[in-house]
Amino acid sequence: MARVLVTGAGGPAGVAVIEHLRAGHHMVVAADAEPDTAGHRMADAGAHLPPGDDPLFGEEVLRLVVDERIDVLVPTVAEELLALHAQAGRLREAGCHVLLPGPEAIALCCDKYAFAQLCTQHGIPVPGTSLPHTPMPPGPWIVKPREGRGSRGVHRADAAAQAGRLAAESPGSIVQTRLTGREFTVDVLCGPDGEVVVQVPRWREQVRGGVSTAGTAFRAPGIEQQVERLVKALGYRGMANVQGCRTEDGTFAFFEMNPRFSGGLPISLAAGADFVEAYIALATGRPVPGELRAWEPGRRVVRYLTQTPGARTPVRQPVPVSTGPEQPSAPAAPRRILVPLGTRPEIVKLAPVVAALSPRHDVQVVFTGQHVSAGLGDAILAEFGMEPAERWDVRTAAAGSGAARLGTLMANAARSLERWRPDAVLVLGDTHTVPAFCLAGVDARVPVVHLEAGLRSYNPLSREEANRRVAAALAALHLAPTGRAAEVLRAEGVPGDRIEVVGNPGLDPLRALGVRAVPAGERQGVLVTAHRPSTVDSPERLAEVVRIVAALVQGAGPVVFPVHPRTADRLRAFGLTDRLAATGAEILGPLPYAELLERMRHSRAVVTDSGGLQEEAAWLRVPTVVMRGSTPRWEGIEDGLARLSPVRRDAVCRAVAEVTAPGPVRRLLDSDCPYGDGRTAGRVAVILGRESTWRRIRLREPDFTDGRVPSVRASAGEGAMAG
Asked: 507 and 478 in contact (C-beta within 8 Å)?
């Protein structure tokens, strides 16, 4: 019996491998980027990993291997292979065996055009293949992603013009001759020397979502010989599946080769070829017995779906591996986490985090009501599918001073902590909700996790700056969006082991929605927003904003101005509503989130005093003029994505002209977003999914009765992105 880690536990291949291993009495740890999958429920233990293309994937796998004393690693996701290859030496040192193809073979398998070119060079049959805007092979055609898997993004074309148009409209696609006949897959396992150990061709008789759900194993010496030539041309080792088609005249060609176990693996297993046990034997340096390689043609399998029972918390705890101290990254037991939020940006940013934490933990959302307008409160909650367990009414306090509001929020926070008795509170950003729960948490002895920690505007008159500094002093764990923010915290004396860099969660919805930058030629006009007290609470300053809007309409094209409820109130109070309407700008109420993004990505520039819009504009590569004297988001300023400007008509118009010039726009389109990669929620779930994190943030009184004196030096540490 071996201790086996299977990645991609939620996919058809992962489920098939786990099911077979469990029948063979191995101890199986299932891991996936999703926290609750069928594979998790079937295995002895479960783990939640970042996606395979996440920079920390390899480190997290290594950590899991060490903690669970894994003997054999079975990857079932192609996107994970390069990261695992980079960790191969450290995996061996940890006593873990894995059989991986080389980086060049992985790259060739993942690039269908390069794969076709290699096959052509070695006389291996493939359909005619071309790139867009190059001479096409004979028709009819199929247009599909150059990199991709399954049936996603695949289009059929019967006319050359149609094929050319589909290819031109699908960046990163290839055009292939569409063959008619019977499609097949060959499951193939190669040893460390590149020799084929066992292969099984099988007909793809029923396919759903690109996965064979019914098929029959068959003998085909010609196909099997070409598979042997193919793996030698690639220098391949490990598990793979080759897909192809045999036409009515008996000829055949290979479409692609996937460097992993296939979703239709049960068909080959039913034929008698035990690919899973043979893989374990090869990975551990043992010969493969003949009975594992023997199989019979004619075996037909029809796969079906069934339910996988599980408890409320389906990601199981690891099987104990020793009686010694608990390993530092053992999966955490379920905790109750309270997530208070009260403004539109908090809802947008915390929605994906709540979704990522909920499969493991009991997450309770408290709506603190700081946005009393339905357009910015209930409407955005509904848009993101969030139903708070508790709602506060702070309308009376909202009419008072900032101190009165904070007092009301803190009293409510104390009552919420008493009601829910959470294991931790997760707060975001810099609204009054943050210090309210930080201070209440001290009294209740509940640790606070601060997401978006370490931002600094260095403005002593800013309420938000004060709120952020309270969190820096009182939070037990600081989840910083960038390395710069982490360095700020360390410079202020926050211990390095209390800081993790996770990216900014405001980018997660954009990644999830697939919102991307549009070409510069498809953009026009300016998106304007203004809502901060320092911008709109002064009659003179707000009047200047109206003059800025009028000047931008004249000099920069159409202007869209979604007016925040606070701004609308001030416009009415100062008698400026009609003057704004007369500017010629498109004056709107608060926009739904998706519509705001659509407006933003089609704008030539954004003029704003908002913090969150700076992040979203950077993701969309839209230049931003920030109407403030400072900003807590300095990364965009440093990278040239944004520019600070006083709230003055001439300064703002000059800045807009400069940032929308062709040179800066070209540099902007080629730049990376400095605020993250849209995967923050998963990293937060990984961090709070470790038992070691909960030990680290437990609140304790210090004991210096032994004569020690605490150090006053700032802690040092690195700012690398966390798991």
From this structure: no
Tokens for 189, please give them: 């396992």
Q: What digits encode the pLDDT tens for the residues 628-677?
A: 999 999 999 998 889 999 999 999 999 999 999 998 898 888 888 999 98
CB 59 within 8 A of CB 86: no
CA distances from 351 to 256, 502, 506, 508 (A): 38, 16, 10, 9
Which residue did the predictor score with more confidence, 24 or 515?
515
End-to-end CA distance of the chain: 31
Which pair of structure tokens corresponds to residue 644?
Answer: 């600070």
Q: Is there a contact between 366 and 338 (Cβ–Cβ < 8 Å)?
A: yes
Residues 62-80 pLDDT 10s:
989 988 889 999 999 999 9
What strands, in cross-sheet order, belong to the sheet with 3-7?
Answer: 45-48, 27-32, 3-7, 72-74
Query: d(Cα 349, Cα 503) in Å, to the nearest integer?
Result: 11
Give this prediction's pTM.
0.58
Query: How far apart, in whole angstroms, are the C-alpha atoms of residue 630 and residue 637?
Result: 10
Q: Report CA 91 to chain centroid distance, whole Å.
A: 25
Q: Is the pLDDT of residue 17 over 50?
A: yes
Assign 651 to helix, strand or coil.
helix
**Which single residue is written with the structure tokens 């099997």?**
224
Q: Are strands 448-451 and 477-480 parallel, antiparallel or unpaired?
A: parallel
Structure tokens at 194: 């590149």
pLDDT reading at 398 higher than 60: no
User: Are 217 and 178 spatial neighbours (Cβ–Cβ below 8 Å)?
Assistant: no
Beta strand pairing status for 72-74 and 3-7? parallel
177-181, 403-407, 718-722: range with lowest mean pLDDT: 718-722
Who has greater pLDDT, 171 or 177? 177
> Residue 306: pLDDT band by 50, 70, 90 thresholds?
very low
- CA separation for the pair 70, 318 (Å, rounded): 12
Please name every residue paired with 247 in a beta bridge, in sequence order, or none if there are none. 181
Task: Give the 3-state DSSP-derived string for 331-353, with helices as H, strands as E and coil as C.
Answer: ECCCCEEEEEECCHHHHHHHHHH
Look at residue 209 in the predicted model and tell me its pLDDT. Answer: 53
Cα–chain-centroid distance for residue 74? Answer: 23
3-state secondary structure (DSSP) of residue 310: coil
Please tell me the distance from the alpha carbon of residue 390 to that of residue 387, in angstroms, as a whole number.
9
Q: Which residues lie below 8 Å from residue 614, measured CB to CB, with a gap of 6+?
A: 608, 624, 626, 631, 633, 636, 641, 642
Rounded to an integer, the average pLDDT of 458-473 is: 94
Bond from prior residue into 140 cis (ω within 30 degrees of 0): yes
Using alpha carbons, select from 423, 330, 361 the residue that is nearest to residue 36.
Answer: 361
What is the total residue count of the chain? 723
